[in-house]
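Weekly puzzle thread! Below is a chain. First person to post its structure in token form gets bragging rights.
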Amino acid sequence: MQTIDLNADLGEGGAHDEALMALASSANIACGGHAGDGESIRRAVEFAMRAQVAIGAHPGYEDPENFGRKPILLSAGEIRSLILRQLERMLRIHPGLHHVKPHGALYNQSNQDSAMAKALVAAIAEVQPDTILYCPPQGELIKAAAEVKLATCAEGFIDRRYQDDGNLCPRSDPRAMIEDVNKAVLQAFKIANQQVVNTLSGTTILMKARTLCIHGDSPNALITLKLTRAFLERAGIEIIAP
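Winning reply:
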């Protein structure tokens, strides 16, 4: 049977965290960088445990004003400190993380910069060597993880558009988000079932992903994830965390 993981970015102040948790198979919980604090982490962990979904950390730039989506240039030492600080905050509340998924600009920049990727991955491996890194199917993050033997799970996005090179369309482009629920569900199915995705130019490219992400702060996140899960299950695809 085909399988796929459905992960959701949560603990970011969204109104539907508990409902999204019930539909996802893994949760990426903001841990005080772009969003979140001790109380929101505890609440999200409680929701996740009740829903029996895999619990992961979602560290990002400590820039809540821009929700961690503005590129920032940090040294390797600064990236290490940022990751350690946020993971330790998560681990005080929930010891042992199933996975770690970088957020926003940190995710995108580190996947294109070898030095950033190595610093980020080394920090994760220092604290949680047995965890899984959720990252793009290609790029610097998956290479850096292989070097330190950190497990990875290749990720695709339900609600984001792609460029021909396989990178996400920048959020500065008004077409970056897929707001049409039906189009988002179709993209999820193509990635899960056919391992392909259509780009902005209309080109079809490979997208070998084992987990699919929905952004919890998106206006249509709940209905999109609900329909995506139902569509995938009807197609015989099992929803399960890696």
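Puzzle host: Confirmed. Bonus trivia for everyone else. The beta strands are 3-10, 26-30, 54-58, 99-100, 132-135, 151-157, 196-198, 204-206, 211-215, 238-239.
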